Amino acid sequence: MFAQFLTPAYLPFAIAFVVMLGIGLIEGVGLGLGHFDLDADVAADGHAGVLDWLGLGGELPILIWLTSLLGCFTVAGIALQQGASALWGAPLAWPLASGGALLAGGLLNTVVANGLARIMPGFETSVISTEDLLRRRGTVLEGVARRGSPARAKIVDQFGQAHFVMVEPHNDTAVIPAGETVLLVRRHGTLFFALPDRDTLLQSI
């Protein structure tokens, strides 16, 4: 069976399975990449119903949802190829099998994702709005933050969940190097503006 899994007819599903394991490992070791604020502005755009249907409306972490989708795609693809082999003596060509598995796996994943959202209430209580990150401190991880040139920073919320955001200095002439602790003071879209802790205005905060 393992050798069959590596043949061209099954290769898309083998790749999906490996990616699923990799994402599961990332989520499992707690790198904090699983939570994205997908629900912050979708209501105004009228897409909330679509997210609900996909299983994302319940604040299910995106990496868990993606892992579920890859798993459903893999299972659907293997079942499709096994069925084709039983009926016609050979599996389908991989593009045809991939299309069918994507459709079947996507439908199956709506059920699985919504089920996971119901049995994982801990995520519903720990997911916060992007606005809640304001007035919290974080650390610039890499790059140098300048006006017009944001850097990546890590913010830990009140639940201990890490969020990774892009930050620029609040002051036009400020420069914030990697390793600097900052205070998020305002937001424009997905971009945050921060004051470095070395700023004398923050020493009493």
TrEMBL record:
Record Pfam families: YqiJ_N (PF21001), YqiJ_OB (PF07290)
Membrane-spanning ranges: 7-26, 62-80, 92-112
Segments forming domain Inner membrane protein YqiJ N-terminal: 11-104
Domain of life: Bacteria
Methyltransferase found in the keyword field: no
Residue ranges of domain Inner membrane protein YqiJ OB-fold in the record: 134-194
Keyword vocabulary terms for this entry: Membrane, Transmembrane, Transmembrane helix
Protein name as it appears in the record: YqiJ family protein
